[in-house]
Amino acid sequence: MRSRRTRHALGVVATSLAALLALSACGTGPTPSSGVLDVRHLADANSAAAVADGDLWPSCWSDDDELYAAFGDGNGFGVEFADVGMTRITGTPQAGFDGENLALGDELGQVWSGEGFTRKPTGMACVDGDLYLAVQDLRLDFNEVPAATIARSNDKGETWTWELRAPMFDDGVFTTIMFLDYGRDYAQAPDADVYAYGLDGNWRDSFDDSVADPQDLYLARMPHDEIQDRTAWEFFAGSNDDGEPTWSRIIDDRVLYPGDAANAQGGAANLTVISQGSIVYDDPLDTYLYTSWTELTFELYYDI
């Protein structure tokens, strides 16, 4: 008999409160969850801080037991400003944190969209000892993300490689890439695939409405050794009559489960509550958590 983790889904559900993430893993790939979903408020608590500068900070835990994190628009743990940078973070909450910069700017990716755009990190995955970083083109006014690609490091963040001829994603489709975090070196993954979620249009509400606000999360999977091969990616295309997931390598076949996008637009000041964030599997709780935000609020979605 399959366990709860094998029966349930990697999927995203939108409700009248917000778009809520429903995730669970199964040995043959994700399927839509039928669990009860809710939004909860968390009390304030102390946090451990390091002396670092920048925003976003997607991260992953590698097989060397180090935490690697990427920052945007800052100095990281150094003195040189960069639009995107890679760091290694050491320490503990009890003893304090420290870190060092490993790579900056052009060492991590290129700008595909020309003048008026910069780079931002959106997601990281540590898989088989290597590091993967999703980098997007972001318009200087923060209101459009037309392109994104994934860089890889096989020397723990010192040097990076990516396809130089074209971005993996363009035309504002799936251009905010957030890898699902399955723990140390992706060891808690239920199968040999790596999973990533993507947003269209912008990384958060597009204040000038020059592109559509992100209101849907889309799911993709790819073999763990083909993360940079766009042709190897498959996109969740809905469930069949037996409730099993279907997948397509055609990106236009992708669907949101269950597809109720309108409810994502309804946060404070009518801002979309679906934004670039972090999605992680919490093994002790057997729960998937998605943290998102607006300019005025923080959002936490989970499968309970």
Describe the structure.
The relative contact order is 0.17. The protein has one domain: Tachylectin-2, Chain A, CATH 2.115.10. Strands 3-18-17-16-11-12-13-14-15 form a nine-stranded mixed β-sheet, with no helix packed on it. Strand 5 and strand 6 form a beta hairpin. The two termini are 21 Å apart. It contains one helix and 18 strands. By secondary structure, the chain is mainly beta.
Give the SSE string. Answer: HEEEEEEEEEEEEEEEEEE
Structural class: mainly beta
The proportion of residues forming helix, as a percent range, comes to: under 10%
- Which percent range describes the beta-strand content? 35-45%
CATH architecture: 5 Propeller
Secondary structure: number of strands: 18
Unreliable residue stretches: 1-32, 34-38, 257-262
Global morphology:
globular
As laid out across the biggest beta sheet, the strand order is 3-18-17-16-11-12-13-14-15
In DSSP terms (H or I, runs of 4 or more residues), the helix count works out at: 1
Q: Characterize the largest beta sheet: strand count, sense, and whether it forms a barrel.
A: 9 strands, mixed
| Straight-line distance between termini | 21 Å
Name some characteristics of this structure.
single chain; 304 residues; mainly beta; Tachylectin-2, Chain A; nine-stranded mixed sheet; disordered N terminus
Task: Please give the structural blueprint.
Layout: H1 4-7, E1 10-14, E2 19-23, E3 37-39, E4 53-61, E5 67-76, E6 82-92, E7 96-104, E8 117-127, E9 130-139, E10 148-153, E11 176-181, E12 193-199, E13 218-223, E14 234-239, E15 245-248, E16 278-282, E17 287-293, E18 298-303
